[in-house]
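Colleagues,

Please find the record for the two-part complex below.
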Amino acid sequence: MISRRNLLLGGAALTLSGCKLLDGLNSGDSMLRATLQGAENLTMTAQRFLLGDSLAPEFAEADIRQGQHPNGSTAVDSPEYLDLQAGGFANYRLQVTGLVETPLSIPYATLTAMQSRTQITRHDCVEGWSCIAKWTGVPLSMILDQAKPLLKARYVVFHCFDTIERTLAGEVTYYESIDMVDARHPQTILAWGMNGQPLPMANGAPLRLRVERQLGYKMAKYVQSIELVDSFAGLGSGRGSYWADRGYEWYAGI
Amino acid sequence: MTPEQGPLIYRQKRITRLTHWVWAVCLLFLMFSGFQIFNAHPSLHFGKESGFDYDNAAVAIGAVQDGDRVKGVTRILGRDFDTSGVLGTSGGAVRAIPAALTMPSTQSLATGRVIHLFFAWILVATLCVWLVFSAINGHLRKLIPSLRDLRNLPDDVANHLRLRFHHTSDYNVLQKLAYASVLFLALPLMIATGLTMSPAFNSVAPWLLDLFGGRQTARSIHFLTMLALILFFVVHMVMILAAGPLNEIRSIVTGWYRVDPDQGGQDDQSA
């Protein structure tokens, strides 16, 4: 006879096995995962169709109620970076390389003297939290105009100073990429200022990317150089971003 | 056939049954993967952003060191509750929602999102199919309570409370209200608040942010509506058990439903 207790236990076991049902999805080479991840393409196609060149909402000064909550890497300890930081980034130069007509090496002083854009926007972390801050920086499109990407250039890759992972195989520095649609968006800037101050170390000094219509992890901090590419082969595991290589969406619009 | 049994009627069309089961599965996966996503930031804030330097969290689940043990603490509207073993700590680990309720069972925000967004698409597609077919085949009308239904509401509530059910071809008024709230209120609200959390969608429909009072409020509404859907599910199950599970389940699997003897239409009027 089935007692009430056994029924409850059975139910609990079902719930448990139910939740473990998709644990296999954690593996990057799971076929089922690849199938479910197909929805990512659908999301990107649908959002790109709806979005056009619409702007992310911008907020008022009064909406800035706190500092920008730092996440991911919050400090860099490489000697090269610390040297640059000690000198107030006077010796920092943004390298623009890859599939461009004119490779660039732009000094920090030139970057901060270029025509800038200031926007008060909401930063949405993939974890679920949001934080509003004011960002000042150079529109990425201006830098691309100077570098003149070749026609076959499809993505802008950001190579960063910060070591996000230390393994036995070596150190992994952060890398991220966006396509030309987001790179040319008017709110896509390389920010050197935050809330009216130079960008703090915790938030990605000297330069961090802002891609306001995507989630926080797309907005690479501590940008060292920019590379224009036509594919992600040779970059990490080939998905175009540190977090995409670890199972997150490359297009993080939701 | 025993004398008191009414006739079998064809109550649920194939498209109704199919869509019911598809979104039942979707909602189950969405709930489990939703808890996984929630675990990455287990607090519910109200407003445009999440307070770090100030507090705008209505609910926060965490863990604190208490002597030589770690205690699970759930803070609701400023009051702390010891929820060790369930919320905050469970299975000997620090985690907001226990492994038994998250999918995958291990902590993986990336995988949780893959599952959640896949089933979100299936749910939306199924709802669209259901809406179109139900508008055409007349099912939609059966969900809208009539004036007569509303006049019957007190009687119907009394009958439900006494677990006395009438098995008729039509839904009773409480059923209509419950199903209509889920299909026309709760699920659209889930989809709208879900989209409001999308920074991309915000640029297309910034008015949604104003409608819900900010992204973090939308996130909290998304969570609270999920709890309401769980409540619906529990009541739904209890009602099926109370009204005769075999008959109820048969109607949503095969479409055939045995009505009360006096409800069977013309054949029965003579009986």
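The two ends of chain A are 50 Å apart (CA to CA).

Comments are welcome before we finalize the supplementary table.
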